[in-house]
Amino acid sequence: MKRFVPSLILAILLVSASAMAQGNRPNLTGTIKGKILDSEFQVPLEYSNIVLYSHRDSSMVSGTVTNKDGYFELTNVPPGTYDLEILFLGYERETRESIRLNRSNREVDLGKIYLRQTVLSVDAVQVEGERVPISYQIDKKVINVDQQYSTLSGSAVDVLENVPSVTVDIEGNVSLRGSGSFRVLIDGRPSVLEPSEALEQIPASTIENIEIITNPSAKFDPEGTAGIINVILKKTQKTGQSGLINLNAGLNEKYGGDLLYEMKRGDYNTILGVDYNNRTYTGSSLEENITTRNGISSYIYSEGNSTRGRISMGLRGNLDIRLSPKDNLSFSGRYGDRTSQRDSELDYTQWADNNPTRLSYFSITERERSGEFYQINSSFIHRFAGKGHQLYAEATYENDHSDEKTINELISNEGLITNGQRFIESGPGSEARIKLDYTNPFSEKNKFEAGWQSEFDKSEENTDYQEYDESAGAYISLPKYSNSTVYKRNVHATYALYSGEWKKFGYQGGLRAEYTDRAVEFSGVEDRFTIDRWDLFPSIHTSYQFAGGHQMMVSYTRRIERPRGWELEPFMTWMDAYNVRVGNPDLKPEYINSYEAGFQTYFGKSLFSTEIYYRETINKIERIRSVYSDNVTLRSVDNIGKDYALGSELLLNIDAARFWNINILGNLYDYRVEGMLLGESFSRESFNWGGRISNNIKIGQSLQFQIDGHYRSPTVSAQGEREGFFMANAAVKYEFLPNQLSATLQVRDVLGTGKFEHTSSGPEFYNYGQYTRESPLVMLNIRFNINNYKQKDRQRVREENGVNVMEDDF
């Protein structure tokens, strides 16, 4: 596998070079150029497909795609007469005919070409062009959340359930390409919350797009094994006042809503948003646990019901001020309050080889996590003379305070508490960040970027462990298992990027240097665990454009995943009567080498895109299970070795009929993990695959249907495996007033197949678990647009705010 990656990239480069060589022709003297814009919003249409045909015999001569400014240029075109065709999904085809190039007219500038959204009619069936639900761009995948009708009343996590390379377990934990380590950004800025928790906090109805960046350049933080998930919140495009209201409700205590209001006058733009959501999900579980000590096995079997609930509210505000034609100042803030609860009532049966008598009892577990968080931000941009030449400065402060309480009680058949634990964990965390970015496009095709960032993290965690004393009839605190931790980490980084174009080749090279100063202190431990280290993170991105608008991309980046939280705590913490955990302050960070190669092409109005990726993780951090005592499992963490993932992702977007669009996505990869586990060498491997198909049908101007289904295959970890599963969703949307009032009915997990199964085993233990959640989930969402609200184009948002946080084109 190690030899395969360089061979693959070499083969791609050779093919690209060969194609370029075949495309070279003598006496190429002409140039045709222009700019493609949306006819309604006057914004550039990036990645529009440009194809040049011979006027005489209609044979294809050349092709390209537009850049982020909507600009295209066909060079080295022989003298002659040509026809030009412009294609972009969801828009009407546009042509320019009889374009003449000769000695006296070697350059033709077609100027601005406007594309209109498609409106096609077949009797009573009419379909209006809309944005592609999921599209691939050079450095990212973009999910258009408004097209995911079946998740409109959910959160960002629910949207990601339908995306290839992303998996979501029954408790809402998100994995990107098999890894739970990734960076979450909100409008290009990091979130102080844990990744899955940050995504749960954001209602889907407030999101415009979600960008998945699996190989970000050296400009971005290298934190996170699998890359970046960037959530772009909605903004409007109208001058004056406008807004958006969403209300939703569902069966079994599910309701919420959100409001977005924007006022734009002169040099000021103000945005206010508020959201509230209350969700309760029921389910069931069964678990079998076997532990073996001294040749004697003990057995525990449990089965029962569970409830998972979440209440969240959020406020956000933005103020953008245009100080002058060259200077912009922005202020923004977010505040949130959340409470999540997971309760279970289980019937237990316990026995052992040396005691076959079965003991039955009842268990009640209540877990609650709550807290507030806020973020304040200020940014400033100054534009120098020359397009794109600018200096951007930003300062951010975030604070999060959370409290977590777990109560586990075992109750006998007589109704008496025979065993009980309380685990209370609380503490604040904060992060301050200052950054400076400089961009200088010193020519039309070449650009230099450089920047600096300093990050200051601090968190405190206090734990209190209590056990139930039968004789006293009360809970007693045990100082032995009650501890405190103080975590401080400062990271200073600088980067430089150079990008350019040469004929049909695009390239970008960058290097990021980071200095990490970390100190962790534990109560009762004299040693102070510190890190004082420099790390280098290079990145390389290349692209090649073939005739006809086809394009190929190859990239490499190096990333890091730093341990934190309980993974570093050296003391034991009881989670319940049967599980205890301990961290490892000597953990090393994971280092990740990530390679990608992608290809995109259009055929007619359909799009095909594929990516091949390879990821190597060094110092792989794995959570390990072992036997602590009879019926008790110890959960620890260690650097076990390496893992490797080699796979491919596919996208096919088809207009099957004038009223019917099909979006097919797939992901298949080989995963291997190897190293040392509990003193023994090991190697495990699995071939994994998954797919999603979405059908979108629009009848008339008001009625839309969406039916989708997705499957994910089984996969392995160092000590176990997870079974595959299939789930189907459906939604219907009706517009009562065009662009003003609509209702969407969503039914998730229509067939009730959302069952999650996992198995883990080791030398002295075996564990099997099965979890089934409430199904089907039925929700109704009502949307009302104030003053004909329309979403602002993503690129325009960034240009007006002066923040090109996610633009990495070359």
Could you characterize what this model shows?
- This protein is mostly beta strands and 810 residues long.
- The chain has 2 domains: 4-117, Immunoglobulin-like; 254-785, Beta Barrel (Maltoporin, Chain A), CATH 2.40.170.20.
- It is built from 4 helices and 46 strands.
- The strands form 6 sheets. The chain has a 22-stranded antiparallel β-barrel. A 6-stranded mixed β-sheet has the order 10-11-16-17-14-15. A 4-stranded antiparallel β-sheet has the order 3-2-5-6, with no helix packed on it.
- The protein is globular, with a radius of gyration of 28 Å.
- 37% of the residues are buried.
- The model is unreliable at 1-26, 119-131 and 792-810 (pLDDT under 50).
Secondary-structure topology with pairs:
Elements: H1 4-23, E1 30-38, E2 49-54, E3 60-65, E4 71-77, E5 80-87, E6 94-101, E7 107-115, E8 119-122, E9 125-128, E10 134-136, E11 141-144, H2 156-160, E12 166-168, E13 174-176, E14 183-186, E15 189-190, H3 195-200, E16 207-213, E17 228-233, E18 240-250, E19 254-265, E20 268-293, E21 296-324, E22 327-352, E23 355-383, E24 390-411, E25 417-443, E26 446-469, E27 474-477, E28 484-502, E29 505-522, E30 529-545, E31 551-561, E32 572-576, E33 579-582, E34 590-603, E35 606-629, E36 632-657, E37 660-677, E38 680-699, E39 703-712, E40 715-716, E41 720-722, E42 725-737, E43 741-748, E44 755-762, E45 765-773, E46 777-786, H4 794-801
Parallel strand pairs: 1-7, 14-17, 33-36
Antiparallel strand pairs: 1-4, 2-3, 2-5, 5-6, 8-9, 10-11, 11-16, 12-13, 14-15, 16-17, 18-19, 18-46, 19-20, 20-21, 20-45, 21-22, 22-23, 23-24, 24-25, 25-26, 26-27, 26-28, 28-29, 29-30, 30-31, 31-34, 32-33, 34-35, 35-36, 36-37, 37-38, 38-39, 39-42, 40-41, 41-44, 42-43, 43-46, 44-45
